[in-house]
Design a protein that fits this description.
single chain, 472 residues, alpha+beta, 6-stranded antiparallel beta sheet, 10 strands, 35% helix, nucleotide-binding, non-specific serine/threonine protein kinase, serine/threonine-protein kinase
Length: 472
């Protein structure tokens, strides 16, 4: 599918304009769905094609996530595709142990704006993006990164090897923790009492007024913030950088979600897939793709968790002159790569490919010129047409120089990521192979080593106490 049905952001509201024929369904707290089985509790988030609500399932006495699609035909088609994929996942994982979101139910709901397809999913917590934001964009401890990565790999191994499904849009937003960062927002941990009937109040304008009120509050907050910033600048006050938070109480187990763009390897729907920063080179070059595109995105996610920053953030061209010296963004400069003067149009793909090559080395000529769109970016020698020079910096040196990793941590983490970022898709390890990697199993190896050393020590002590009697 060409469009995502992600639950999206809860940072901003979706606005009231899309609450119309073909658009969102207006939900009020206490509204019931599917014959009264599901009762809306509060909004969890929204996306371009849907809103997502915390709902209470009176039949099973548990909280669920209710995803309500817009009613226009194209959104219904997207929902049917996602339901098909999620149903295959549920059938293949009856024990719900494969680190992939579970579809509980689906149905149609008719409202003033049309007929809406609805999906009921298990309730999950915050996204990894929210976790990174909560940690002030500081890298997580590597043991926590390992724990998260292992869950993602279990999910990918299940999707790829057992079901033949490519996710095609892996990113921080599409990985959810199994519980919320703030226990008070988890309806189960906080022992939230469910709302089983609609509270008294305006029966028609609740949704609209809520959105308008929130917009006014946000504007007021921004105005206060601007005034505060102005005062601080006048007296020379500088905000100190925020330190990382303690994350010890947060459960790092997580699940892969949002299958609106997923496809079967044998039945692909679109050539342009993946969110740009997580996009594999073969997608940019139109060289065809398979499960390995998910592995590229996974490597980008792992890097982002460990550093707090995206691995690749391409920028549009600026039309620099020949005499200007260009610096890589990896060295700390905020400049994009320069483009020849005859091409001043933004070209994010060129910059993206350049960033990849600076970090991973020159792309092999056969791969560089082998895609349907290769001629847009590379000459016949396999050199970028519009990027004049590159400044190379290996992944381990980047981790050491910019992110202050220790030499050992940098080398080991880079050794885990580098194969996943091979320009040749067929050379990237599978999720199953990654699950056997020493870096992922570092903690287990350490524990096993400690147990082994402890056993040897005990044997030594036992041998020292052993007395052998010979005759009388």
């Amino acid at each position: 599918m060409s469009c995502s049905s992600s639950s999206g952001s809860s940072e901003e509201d979706e606005g009231i304009d899309s609450y119309r024929k073909g658009g969102y369904h207006a939900v009020r707290i206490g509204d019931s769905f599917n014959g009264g089985r599901y009762i809306a509790q509060r909004k969890l988030g929204w996306g371009q094609f849907s809103t997502v609500w915390l709902a209470y399932d009176v039949q099973s006495s548990r909280y669920v996530a209710l995803k309500i699609m817009k009613s226009a035909p194209q959104f219904a088609q997207a929902a049917l595709h996602e339901i098909e994929v999620l149903s295959a996942i549920a059938d293949g994982d009856p024990s719900n142990s494969k680190c992939v979101v579970r579809l509980v139910d689906h149905f149609k709901h008719t409202g003033p704006n049309g007929q809406h397809l609805c999906m009921v999913l298990e309730f999950l917590g915050d996204s990894l993006l929210r976790l990174v934001k909560y940690n002030h964009y500081k890298g997580l401890q590597l043991n926590k990164v390992r724990e998260i990565c292992k869950c993602i790999l279990i999910g990918l191994d299940f999707l790829h090897r057992e079901l033949g499904i490519i996710h095609t849009d892996l990113k921080l937003e599409n990985i959810l923790l199994i519980s919320t960062i703030d226990p008070g927002k988890d309806p189960i941990k906080s022992s939230l009492v469910p709302i089983l009937e609609r509270p008294e109040g305006n029966p028609n304008g609740g949704v609209t007024m809520s959105i308008v009120e929130k917009k006014l509050k946000r504007r007021a907050k921004r105005a206060v913030a601007r005034i505060s910033e102005g005062r601080d600048s006048m007296v020379g006050v500088r905000e100190s950088p925020k330190s990382e938070r303690c994350l010890d109480g947060i459960d790092m187990k997580c699940k892969v979600v949002d299958f609106g763009n997923a496809c079967w390897d044998s039945k692909q729907f679109a050539e342009e897939i993946q969110t740009r920063q997580y996009r594999a080179p073969e997608v940019i070059l139109r060289s065809g793709y398979s499960f390995s595109v998910d592995m590229w995105s996974f490597a980008c996610i792992a890097f982002e968790l460990a550093t707090g920053e995206m691995m690749f953030t391409p920028k549009s061209g600026q039309g620099f002159t020949e005499d200007e010296v260009l610096y890589s963004s990896y060295t700390g400069s905020t400049m994009s790569h320069g483009y020849d003067n005859y091409d001043r149009s933004p070209c994010l793909e060129n910059d993206h490919l350049a960033l990849m090559m600076e970090l991973l080395g020159k792309m092999p000529r056969k791969i560089a010129i082998g895609g349907a769109l290769s001629k847009d970016y590379f000459d016949r020698h396999g050199d970028l047409k519009r990027i004049r020079r590159l400044k190379y910096l290996s992944l381990d040196r980047l981790l050491i120089n910019k992110y202050k990793f220790s030499e050992t941590d940098a080398v080991e983490f880079a050794a885990f990521l580098s194969p996943l970022l091979d320009f040749a898709p067929e050379k990237r390890p599978t999720a199953q192979q990654c699950l056997q990697d020493p870096w992922i199993n570092f903690r287990n190896l350490t524990l096993n080593k400690a147990k082994s050393e402890s056993s040897i020590e005990k044997v030594g002590v036992g041998m020292g106490k052993l007395q052998i009697k010979v005759g009388k």
